[in-house]
Structure formats: C-alpha cells, structure tokens
Amino acid sequence: MKEFFTKHGLKVAGVIVGAIGGYLYYYFVGCGTGSCPITSNPWRMTIYGAILGLLIFDIFKKEEGRGKEIKNIK
C-alpha cells in the first residue's frame, strides 16, 4: 500500500482536492433552477471535480525517461 501511494500519491491528492472543489462549487454556486445537467446534482459535480482534479494534478508528474531521449539527439 505504501508503494502505491508513493507512486500515485499526486493523482490521489488530485482526486480528493477535485472532489472537494466540485462539491463546494455545487454548494456555493450550483444551479438554482435545477435545469443545469451537471451543477444541479451534487454527485455529478463531485465526480466532475474529481476528474478535473486528477487531470490537473497529473500534469505535474515527473517523467523519468524523457530527458535522456532529447539529450542524445544531435
């Protein structure tokens, strides 16, 4: 389990932060009329936020093999 969190800790943090952010967006902004397909339901907005958090936090991962390929090109 420790190895999993070492390898995927940033992704897990992104999902958690995104889910909290999605729910807070629903709670404070939301949709007053209920006609908005995503923001009118707290479950949908939480899942949407979790996916966005995963994608945003995944941008910051460190790629190990990429620098060697670029360095050897002459």
Précis, in short:
By secondary structure, the protein is mainly α.
Descriptive notes:
With 74 residues, the protein is mainly alpha-helical. The chain has a domain at 10-59. Helices cover 68% and strands 0% of the residues. It has helices at residues 2-28, 42-58, 66-71. It is elongated. It starts with a helix and ends with a helix.
Spatial gap, N to C terminus: 42 Å
Unreliable segments of 5+ consecutive residues: none
Structural class: mainly alpha
> Taking Cα atoms only, what radius of gyration do you get, to the nearest Å?
18 Å
Mean pLDDT: 85
Please give a handful of descriptors for the protein shown:
74 residues; mainly alpha; 3 helices
Write the layout of secondary structure elements.
Layout: H1 2-28, H2 42-58, H3 66-71
Helix pairs in contact: 1-2
